[in-house]
Design brief:
By secondary structure, the chain is of the alpha/beta class. It contains eleven helices and six strands. A six-stranded parallel sheet has the order 2-1-3-4-5-6, sandwiched between helices. α1 links the parallel β1 and β2. α5 packs antiparallel against α6. The longest helix has 13 residues.
């Protein structure tokens, strides 16, 4: 059976963000490449149970062949970690793009300031479209192609239905509260990471801590990229992915 490489997007996005990368990977890496919408995003249905990392990951796991390679961007990386831990037969390799096992800043961890995530959640209730627009800008912050990156992300976002408001809110809760450092430390599958040095959501200081947690983890940092390196620096991201997939 042919190996499958499955791309999982981040918060507020949908599978359309992968369309260029998906086409470019097809035929240059071993296996079939496909992308999936996370539950409540794009065309994907919501979980029947209350929305959580576990219920969202369960729906994704149902769509995976055994021994898949998961490529998870941002929130999609957390989903991938959950599946690798609790559905290990489904995952033979993990690639995290601008993603860590814990997104919130704490005393011993570099991440997003808690008040930033809490403010996003409050703003989401008032104006979800404006909140996502602001999030797009933060993702591209620091990139030398910031305006183009935001324009591209926005265009792809509009190619699918709006995200479910409950999924958006629950996704922020997951980023704020779900700590998968212990899970990350016990995974036995090979794990690779691609990061942007200018990323304000996933500070590069967290990469060394991830290496300390899991000796299988190998990472590359693109010096001029931000939170969406596969968009701002597609050629470099493609070369990295070709080397690890």
């Amino acid at each position: 059976m042919q190996k499958e490489i499955v791309l999982l997007h981040g918060w507020g996005m949908n599978r359309q963000v992968w369309q260029l990368l998906e086409q470019e990977l097809q035929g240059v890496v071993e296996g079939q490449v496909k992308s999936l919408d996370l539950p409540g995003f794009g065309h994907a249905q919501m979980p029947e149970q209350p929305y959580s990392l576990a219920s969202a990951a369960a729906l994704i796991a149902e769509q995976l062949a055994d021994n898949s390679t998961l490529v998870g961007w941002s929130l999609g990386g957390l989903i991938a970690l959950h599946i690798a831990k609790y559905y290990p037969q489904k995952v033979n390799k993990l690639v995290l793009i601008a993603s860590t096992p814990f997104f919130a800043e704490s005393d011993n961890w570099s991440g997003i300031k808690v008040e930033v995530l809490e403010n996003f959640k409050a703003q989401l209730l008032e104006n979800s479209a404006k909140t996502i627009e602001r999030f797009l800008a933060i993702q591209a912050m620091g990139s030398e192609h910031a305006k183009q990156d935001v324009k591209q992300l926005r265009a792809w976002l509009l190619e699918a239905p709006e995200a479910n408001s409950e999924a958006l809110s629950a996704g922020l809760d997951i980023l704020l509260n779900d700590d998968y450092r212990d899970v990350f430390s016990t995974l036995e599958q090979p794990i690779y990471g691609l990061f942007g040095k200018l990323d304000s959501l996933v500070p590069r200081r967290s990469i060394a801590k991830m290496k300390a947690l899991n000796g299988n983890f190998q990472a590359e940092v693109l010096p001029k990229a931000s939170h969406a390196p596969f968009i701002s620096h597609r050629a470099e991201s493609l070369n990295f992915l070709k080397s690890v997939l």
